[in-house]
Amino acid sequence: MSTTNAPLNILISAAGDDEKWKSVMVDRLPDANIVTEDNSYDPETIDYALFWKQPQGLIKTLPNLKAIFSLGAGVDHVVSSPSLPTDLPVIRLEDAGMADQMVQYHLYAALHFMRDFDVYSAQQAKADWTQHDVARISQCRVGVMGLGALGSAVAVSLSNLGFSVSGWSRSMKAIEGIATYAGKETLAEFLGQSDILICLLPRTSETENVLNSSTLSFLPKGAAIINAARGAMINEADLLRALDTGHLRGAFLDVAATEPLPESHPFWDHAKIRITPHIAAATRFEESVDQIAENLDRLARGETPRGLVNREIGY
Ligand code: NDP
Ligand code: OXD
User: Fold this and answer.
1) Which numbered atom of ligand 2 lies nearest the CA of 281?
2) Residue 77 CB partners (closer than 8 Å, separation 6+)
3) What is the dihedral of CA 174, 225, 279, 158, to 10 degrees?
4) Which of 140, 146, 298, 307 could bridge to 200 as Cys pair (CB 3.0-4.6 Å)?
5) Mean pLDDT, range 150-163, rounded to an integer
6) Which pLDDT belongs to residue 6?
């Protein structure tokens, strides 16, 4: 960290939203020099980069970076870059207005299955007025994979609504009202009691493909899956097979291995799949920029920023 009072030089590359981010950043940090890739700038002077799906190769043009801020909760788009120096700090957004939205998304999706809206929508197509018993919410077991900033908020809200909730993470958590599991060795047991499985894991080398034919087979017959994390967590062919054989009842998917989901992809018109286009939790510009500015202050004071990624484990 520089000890002079020279203005910070910040580069933004945000997959088409550069100007919006720049205007909010300029309002929040009027003394900084904030540029986008469309502006002329000297790459050698850039101190900090704010990235969302930055172009391949951009990182290696910035030799004096002090840290990269992800403009999202996930950092897979940054840490997967082969040119990322191993010791460069990467900082992510923690909640920043996303937890509330994740809660709303998962309440809707969990109730979709718990209250049989999937069944009634199939019936509507056949003008079928059959009524089914309404299950007790406490008998519906929800398993949340990932108990971080977003997963824990979702788990607590669903538990408060009356669902019977458990959660799985890498390290053991204690959350009131939630049965917790940690580590690979507990995965089968955790999955075995998840009627609705929610995935809110970060994408890392350990979580990629974590839901595959073998792990999906641990879920109870008739279970449903909600994935708003990353498409890479689920083997798509294995998911289709589990739906088509009737092992799984349905899937509510906000993310896919390839985004946008290609027009010819079998997910689009699968009767048991509901698709949303990666909108479960939008990044909130103001909250995010506040968090980034606070982190820049922490860095200036020599403190650890909030949301610092552990580069060894990848999130
Ligand atoms: P966090 O980093 O706060 O939480 C991650 C959780 O996953 C932690 O509980 C962590 O365990 C757990 N975890 C990580 N690796 C493993 C593993 N190998 N085995 C078991 N548990 C593991 O992330 P967030 O809650 O902020 O975000 C989660 C993800 O949601 C993001 O990475 C992003 O991909 C996705 N996302 C999607 C959005 C959308 O609109 N669809 C919007 C925002 C985020 P531990 O607690 O022990 O560290
Ligand atoms: C995120 C996302 O990671 O939007 O923030 O997916």
Assistant:
1) 4
2) 51, 52, 53, 54, 70
3) -40
4) 146
5) 98
6) 87
Atom 36 in ligand 1: residue holding the nearest Cα: 229
Query: What is the distance in angstroms between the CA of the first residue and the CA of the last residue of the chain?
Result: 23
Cβ pair 214, 187 in contact under 8 A: no
Condensed to tens digits (0 to 9), the pLDDT of residues 16-43 reads 999 999 999 999 999 999 999 999 999 9
Name the average pLDDT for the chain.
97
Burial of 113 (C-beta count, 10 Å sphere; 0-12/13-18/19+): buried
Ligand closest to the CA atom of residue 152: 1
The alpha carbon of 90 and the centre of ligand 1 are apart by a number of angstroms equal to: 15
Please indicate whether residue 301 is annotated as part of the active site.
Answer: no
Indicate if ligand 1 lies below 6 Å from the C-beta of 284: no
Q: Which residues contact 198 (CB under 8 A, 6 or more apart)?
A: 106, 110, 142, 143, 144, 145, 151, 154, 226, 227, 228
Question: Which numbered atom of ligand 1 lies nearest the CA of 254?
Answer: 41
Rg (CA), the chain: 21
147 CA → ligand 1 middle, Å: 7
CA distance 81 to 60: 10
Task: Give the whole-angstrom CA distance, residue 9 versus residue 122.
Answer: 55
Pairing of strands 179-182, 273-275: unpaired
The encoded tokens of residue 6 equal 């020279």
pLDDT tens-digit profile of 252-266? Answer: 999 999 999 999 999
CA–CA gap between residue 271 and residue 267 (Å, rounded): 9
Distance 279 CA to ligand 2 centre (A): 9
Catalytic residue among 77, 270, 278, 311: 278
What is this structure's pTM?
0.97
Q: Which residues surround ligand 2 with Cβ inside 6 Å? A: 72-74, 283
